[in-house]
Structures are given as structure tokens and as C-alpha cells.
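The instructor's notes for this session suggest beginning with a concrete chain rather than abstract definitions. Hand out the sequence below and ask the class to guess, before any prediction is shown, which regions might be ordered.
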Amino acid sequence: MIPELAPAFAGPLHFATDSVVLGPDGRRALPVAELLRPGVLAGLAATFEQRYPKGDAGAVLSMWSQFYMSVLVYPAFSVALRLRRALPLAPAEVSLVLAEDGAPAALQVAHAGEPLAHGISAAAHLGDLVRRHVEPVIQALAAAGRVSARVFWCNTGVRMSHVLRLLSAEPGSDAATHRLLHQSEWEDGWDNPLVRSFHPTACSSQPAPQRRVCCLRYRLPGLEQGCGTCPLPQIRGRHLA
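After discussion, reveal the predicted structure:
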């Protein structure tokens, strides 16, 4: 745990305490900027496949992205909204700590961040994170395998939706939720692919939110039942059976 950041992970976000570490801790770490180079993500995904022997390669890459977005989104949002601090998360500033099987385990930062600049809201800061970090990583993921970028954007939006619900009592949470998950076009004309990552289901027997795009987990051994938020009726029905 980074002591200065401990208040950001109080209560329901305690599970994310170890998702960000200060400096090297003995585990393998790869600069995020390195992930953007051709072939690097495909190599990590090939190692990660050992978790899911004979699993569909696209589904493996999608699952890897969910691990990645978890170690990025939970600390970045918690620190911004609870502490009004900006972690150093530009790809050139941060490294990804990897488990032995290539799974994302944590982000390694050089320092505990700085206060948000005067006049910069948490929503604006997190929007900048999307453009400077999330977008190039998703572009690299889409280039690494035959999976649409829409899958990775939806995986990311699901994580953002979850953390924003956990932080809903924090000042600035509503503005961040609107900008990231509901504002379809940003001021610079960028079409926001995070919009409607979840949407209400029309099925009265399934009142939980429903993903916009399937994450493909049902193609992995041991996860064939899928999940209750899958947009594919046959997979959702299999999970609820």
C-alpha cells in the first residue's frame, strides 16, 4: 500500500489497495509505453493463455484486457475523486506489474501523484486519462488479435461503471459518470465509445444491467456459462439456468 493513497481505498474499494505500487517491488514490470509496440501484447496474451488451456484466443485477449482495466480504473478513479489527486499514468510514466502467467497484477508508479491543477475537475482529468492512456492501449489490443475494439471499450466501460457506482457519494462522481459514460461526443468532436457500456434490459426476468458488447468469456474453459449481463440471450439464459 502507498500510505498517502490509503484513504482512496477505504470501505468498498479496499480490494483495490494493491492495484498500484510505488516503484519496483521485485515482480516483473513492463513500461506501458512498451505495450504499445507491435507484438508485445500478443506475446503477453500467449503467456496468459496458460490460465485457459485451449481457450479461444480472442476471448483470452478480452479477459486479459479486463484484468488490465481493473488495475488502471480502480486506483485512477478512486484517487481522483476521493483525494483530488492525479496519479502519473501517462504511458511513458507508468509500468505494468505482471503475474507469472502474464496477467496484469498492478500498476507501478514513480510517485504518489500530485493535486489536480487548479480549475481541473476530476471528470476532466479522467477524460484526459481516457484519451492519453486508455485509447492507445485499446488500439494496441485491437491490433494484437482478431477482436473488435468495441469489446475492449465495453470491458473498460463496465469497470468504470462499477467504480463510479462505488464512488457515487463523492463530489464530482455524477459529472464524471456523465462525461465518461453518457456524453456521446466530447468538445473536440471525439465520438465516445464508452457510452452505454451498460444499458437496461427489456427482459423483466433479468432486471440487472446488460452489457452492450459481449466480452467472450463463454469461449474460455471453465467459464462456458458466461455471465448474467451478457447481451447474447442464449448465453445469458445459460448462466441463469
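Then share the key points. The chain is about 40% helix and 10% strand. The mean pLDDT is 92.
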